Amino acid sequence: MKEKLEKLKKEAFEKINSVDALDVLNDMRVAYLGKKGEITTLLKTLKDASDEERPKLGQYINDTRVEIEKYISDMKDKLTKRMRKEQMAFEEIDVTLPARAPDIGHRHPNSIAYEQIERIFVGMGYEVVDGPEIEYDEYNFGKLNIPENHPAKDEQDTFYINKDIVLRTQTSPVQARVMEKGEFPIRMISPGRVFRSDAVDATHSPCFHQVEGLVVDRGITFADLKGTLKKFATELFGKDIKVKFRPHHFPFTEPSAEMDVSCFKCMGKGCRFCKKSGWIEILGCGMVHPNVFDKCNVDKSRYQGFAFGMGLERIALLKYEIDDMRLLYENDIRFLEQFN
Amino acid sequence: MKTALSWIKEYVPGLEVDDEKYSETMTITGTKVEGYERLDKNLDKIVAARVVSMEKHPNADKLMVCMCDVGGDKNLQIVTGAKNVAEGDMVPVVLSGGRVASVHGKDEIPEDGVKISKGKLRGIESDGMMCSIEEFGLDRNYYPEAPEDGIYILDKDVKPGTDVVELLGLHDTVFEYEITSNRVDCYGVSGIAREAAAAFDKDFKEPEIIKTGNSEDINDYLSVKILDDKLCRRYIARMVKNIKIAPSPAWLRHRLAASGIRPINNIVDITNYVMEEYGQPMHAFDYDTIEGHEIIVKRANDGEEFTTLDGQQRKLDHDILMINDAKRAIGIAGIMGGENSKIRDDVTTMVFEAATFDGTNIRLSSKRLGLRTDASSKFEKGLCAQSAYKAIERACTLIEQLGAGEVVGGIIDEYPNKDAQVEIDFKPDEINALLGTEYITKYEMIFYLKRLGIKYDEQTGKVICPDFRNDLESNADLAEEVARIYGYEMIDTTLPRGETTLGGCSFEKRVEDAATLAARFLGFSETMSYSFESPKVFDKLNISENDKMREAVKIMNPLGEDFSIMRTCPVNGILNSLALNYNRRNKSVKLYESARIYMPKSLPLTELPDERKQLVLGFYDCGDFFDMKGAVQTIFKFTGVNGKKTYSPDCDKAFLHPGQRADILYEGEKLGYLGRLHPEVADNYGISQKTFIAVIDIENVIKYSNFDTKFNEIAKFPAMSRDISLVVPKAVTAGTIEEIIEEKSGSILESYKLFDVYEGGQIADGFKSMAYNIIFRHRERTLEEKEVSQIISDILKELEKLDIKLRN
């Protein structure tokens, strides 16, 4: 019996070794270990063995079965591995072939620049407020301390609908609208389209965008204005940027200033972008003029405030090194595609 | 405003500063320097030389060999081709190793000038070069004494070896300033000099004014009457007789040239010089032409005609102020004098006028006349009355000093309503509170103000503003004066304290942002187009004559007809952009614009129009109607408009293909429309690809948008799925069938899907085959076979009424 089993095992191992497909291996498992398999058949012969031999023989047959089982299972692992390997070799691809990506559209450079500005101010607790683009003359000029006969009101600069209604020349009228509501404190920005009677060329467009800002509260100071705008500039252009405030004049602020930032192209050394000055003019700002407070019914003995305004196109052109403003309104896809 | 630094230094004698520091300090104290240029930047080793001898060049007919005394031990040999040089002349010579700005025959002025070195001309050594005015980088128009095409000849009494650059006043720098409209005083050199004095804490010295005039009295010669003291606040006259017209001295000519003003003769040059100094224009009349020796300042009559000194006939109106004599007009006030009283070369006696006219009136008059002059551009800024007085006194000083004529004694000064002195309550605490600077003391402030000519009166606690600072009104103005002299840079940077604010965007903006994000997600790129367009756009878009869209807001003064109306429909912008891309052969272009349209409530406009934001999408070569419809649906998904939208073919947009267009309806309201561009309109825009557009009215989307989401439990009970295949008359739309499916299925309808549409083959003419998969599910129990069968049969019964049959 023992020899028979040894022979069977040896023969099984040899056969299993030569198998090279999983289904053949399975057939072999059935042939040895299945219901009608050789081992099962041998087990059935146990009933003919003597009582004392039976446990020993039984043990012996069982051991053989376990060994064959293990052998088949190892072989199965080996085969599976080999086949997977072959399959994977077959599935090999050229990973440098082009991708199949959805076509995502592109943002206009103005919008990208605006989004960055919005994020900075919203982070500082500013609300985004919208205002009409066709505006009363009174809001665009009068309430902003721009008197009736001011040259800016000339038809050379302002588009008129009639004597009382204009295309707003600045986003500042939104300041007046917000102040008149009388809800304080005010911290707001207002982005939008403005219009000036300039013929189209590389640096002018009759229609462009500004972002206005206004803060009104008790005890707001010029130092706060400086601090806020400096923070804004470093967030927008990077923390190594320097800012410079120069005295300037706007009818609706006093004191007024213009803010320059150190040229972010040459880091202030002087280049073509900053016209060799090392500085780039970015925005106008100042403390809200007492006359504006009066005209907007704000109690100037209680409140102080600052306002600022910047041209979006100017920032977009500078940031993306675009040298012709007309490109912004042409909408050639080869231009738009360069912005994300 | 362009001025040589030497001129500023004349009034700020203590100012010693290099160009860079000057530029920086002026800019940060409020007088922005736009740029500056050293006049001698390319001029090196140019000295006066006496031509001792001249001989013909042995090898060249047109060249001369000169021996020149340059003040050294031995004479230099210089070869020249110039024809205007003679023995004994004093000429500028650039020595070898020196530099000039340009050389003869070069059109462009090289950036770094031209270096001159020793060399041979036709075999003869030449040790330097004689210079023309152009070689100094100067324009002959501004140096009328320079010969055309020749060497610049110096005075005979100049010492050989003298620095000619110095002699021509070119060791100087010209600064260009940006002057803000409130600082009228800084349109004059004296104003800028005052600022420089304040910025550098130096003393300011007024331009020299001496008492002028002979023993006569001008009142014996002339009288002046102002009939409109609103338009003419002050009128000053002085007289000069025995005029000797001659060229001005070199210093004056050179100074004007450096400021970009052409020297003419002594009288004109003095007027221009004083105008530069004070920003105050003056005018001169020939006394002998003034009828009745009387000047009357009054308004013109409507329709009156007048010939100005440029020989042009001008039509006047009642709002134009005129200078008249006893009989007729002799000048347009503040704009231009008359032909009839103009100064000619043979003039002997003249009347000098310095006046203060109303700035706005001058500006408007000059615009109506189409005549903007140096004088009008100064007057329109609104000059201070005091500068008229200073200017005329200064001019008379120069006339006497230059010997240009004999100034008549006395002055006529009509100044009916004198300007009051401006005084402001000085509140140092308020200034500190506004600036956020507790640390600037009252006395420091007084010191800064004093530097600017603003005096503090201890007794009244007020500050007294100088007459030339008509921009100062309030404490806030004083705060700016203090801050800029203290230095904006020195003020702390802090962040606002106080109540925290939440910040953020409105719901409306959130919806708009969601819509544009969806558009980009779908492959559309953002564009921007102008808000105004041509009224011809309506014809281009096939819009009918009586369409409400044609009622657009009109601009009174547009840049041209093409930009004259505010858009009432956003599609022209996107079509122009698509057309541009198509023309440039860009393939498969998808664009969007978040555009505003302007719908007037009534015309003409009495209140502001309704400004509506609309998202407009357009593409060519990227799919068909259903791709656009899918895009629109995705946008609604992103914007939280979740209910059922219907697409009605009853769309009236004439620029869309009549068989491929739809209005998008939601709860009975139009959310927008979409469709294929009408082939005719496509032709109008020159796009020969099938183009699809969609417009979504963001304002209406906002009404229905809702970003709140509630979780519905995932269904536990099984669904039942049925397919029905129908034969449908061609005219019946899928929408009609789907309405019936929805209505008959009731609450157990989970979803349905059209999975096949087919025409032809076994289907009869005039019919199409449509197959739907319908899924039913009950949320609380398992559905029974028979209830679903009942519903299907109800649906089919209803469909039968439309002549729709089940396909076998």
From TrEMBL, chain B:
Entry's Gene Ontology cellular component terms: phenylalanine-tRNA ligase complex
Main localisation: cytoplasm
Keywords recorded for this protein, A-Z: Aminoacyl-tRNA synthetase, ATP-binding, Cytoplasm, Ligase, Magnesium, Metal-binding, Nucleotide-binding, Protein biosynthesis, RNA-binding, tRNA-binding
Chaperone as UniProt keyword: no
GO BP terms in the entry: phenylalanyl-tRNA aminoacylation
InterPro entries according to UniProt: aa-tRNA-synth_II/BPL/LPL, B3/B4_tRNA-bd, DNA-bd_dom_put_sf, Fdx_antiC-bd, Fdx_antiC-bd_sf, NA-bd_OB-fold, Phe-tRNA-ligase_IIc_bsu, Phe-tRNA-ligase_IIc_bsu_bact
A matching Pfam family: B5
Catalytic activity as recorded in UniProt: tRNA(Phe) + L-phenylalanine + ATP = L-phenylalanyl-tRNA(Phe) + AMP + diphosphate + H(+)
CC cofactor: Mg(2+)
Class of the enzyme per the UniProt entry, highest EC level: ligase
CDD domains the record matches: PheRS_beta_core, tRNA_bind_bactPheRS
Cofactor remark: Binds 2 magnesium ions per tetramer.
Residue ranges annotated for the FDX-ACB domain, each copy included: 715-807
Binding site for Mg(2+): D471, D477, E480, E481
Compartment annotation: Cytoplasm
Domain called TRNA-binding: residue spans: 40-165
Family, as annotated: Belongs to the phenylalanyl-tRNA synthetase beta subunit family. Type 1 subfamily.
Matching NCBIfam families: pheT_bact
Record text on subunit structure and interactions: Tetramer of two alpha and two beta subunits.
HAMAP family: Phe_tRNA_synth_beta1
Record-given protein name: Phenylalanine--tRNA ligase beta subunit
Species annotation: Johnsonella ignava ATCC 51276
Gene assigned in the entry: pheT
